[in-house]
Amino acid sequence: MQGYLMAFIIGGLICVVGQLIMDLTPLTPAHVLVLFVVLGALLSGMGLYQPLVDLGGAGATVPLPGFGHNLVTGTIEDIDKYGFTGIFTGPLRAAAAGVTAAVVFGLIMAALFNPRG
């Protein structure tokens, strides 16, 4: 039960920060998307995002900073395993399942419902 609560709190706080940025600055949702992915990657590269993942679980890995964290983590793992080539294979390997799921589920929804053009 505590894991669910921490995921809710961490994920909620990340979303609140994003909403405040959009409400209080001239940044668009696209800007916030890029900002959060880059911040997640930077914090992960500095070793600061993993403690948040350990504390909040899916509350930290599902929002956008978690995607940046995922890319950096995959890159570091593949660099350790394959050397220089890991710079290119790591982010692709780490994000492949999530991107594939988004494409497949998007295709299914488009086939089931009438998308508006």
What is the 3D shape?
Answer: globular
Order of helices and strands: HHHHHH
User: Separation of termini?
Assistant: 43 Å
The total of helices stands at 6
Name the helicity range. over 70%
Mean pLDDT: 93
Strand content: under 5%
| Coarse structural class | mainly alpha
Largest sheet: none
Tell me what the structure shows.
The protein is built from six helices and no strands. With 117 residues, it is mostly helical. The protein has one domain. Helix 2 packs parallel to helix 5 and helix 5 packs across helix 6. It is globular.
Write the layout of secondary structure elements.
Layout: H1 2-24, H2 29-45, H3 50-56, H4 58-61, H5 64-82, H6 86-112
Summarize this structure as a short list of keywords or feature phrases.
mainly alpha, about 120 residues, single chain, about 0% strand
Brief sketch in words of this structure:
It is built from six helices and no strands.
